Structure formats: structure tokens, C-alpha cells
């Protein structure tokens, strides 16, 4: 009986993945989608999302682009940025294994550098984990140009502190 439940769970997971892939491949990217994640701060609830999953994607109603007043909904770019060039230091974030603080450099409205000023250091293992996670997080942030990146496996506390500090720096920069 336990095997049947496990098989049913795997099949359900595959169905969700295939459906999401098909939606993306079918060119539905022009429709706004709501994403709810539970790995960080709670996001507003969205119809169709499951409280048991890490990430649920539910298509939202797509207004007629010709009548939309929102430039993004009308298919227009929202590339206007109020970010000021400079270097911004994020708030120090306390974690179970020590504090984490990062500094971000913004140039031309883009994130050009991220420097870890302080990483978890409660013990040798914390230091090793932080030293492994920091370059991965830096690369992901530079590629994504935001603090919305995946958690580094095995470095959850470091990742959460890093991204929280980064977001406070990005808020200061106007990004």
C-alpha cells in the first residue's frame, strides 16, 4: 500500500512538471503568472496554489492588452529604473550560525558586483559552508540581477541571511 502512495506521489509530481513545461512551451509567457514561494517571506495567497508545495504557479486573468492601463499588461517595457549608481551596504542579518552582511555595487541600473562583508562563522563547519555558498550566490545574483535566486543546498541559513542583506541593499539603491 505504501508503494502505491509513493508511485501516485511521483506521478502527480511529474504531471505538475510536464504541465508547467507545456505551458511555457506553448507560448503562454505573455500571460501574467502568480508565483507563490514558501522558502522565504510568505507571499500573498493565489487561487489555485497549494499550501503544501514549495512553489505553485497559477495563471492569472489576462486583461485585453488594448485596454490595459498598466504598461506591462499592455506588452510594453517597464525598463524605467530609479536606481542610483553606487555601492550599498545591506543590513547585517543574524542567523543561527552567525551574522551575514553583503554590499552591492550598482552601475547603469544593473548589479555589477556583490561582496560578502560578513558570513556565518560560528564554527569551522559554518565557515566552510559559507565559503562554498558565497561564490555561488554571487554568481546567481549577478545573473538574475535580483535577490530572487535559489537557496544553495546545504547552506540554507547562509543563503537566507545573504539574500535578506542583499535585498536591503537593493532597496537602498532603488532596485
Automatic annotation (TrEMBL):
InterPro entries: FMN-bd (IPR007329). GO terms for molecular function: FMN binding. The keyword Amino-acid biosynthesis does not apply. One of its GO terms (cellular component) is membrane. Residues 37-92 are annotated as: Disordered. Residues 73-92 have a biased composition (Low complexity). Residues 37-53 have a biased composition (Polar residues). It comes from the Bacteria. SMART domains: FMN_bind. Residues 96-173 form the FMN-binding domain. This is Uncharacterized protein with FMN-binding domain. It comes from Pseudoclavibacter helvolus.
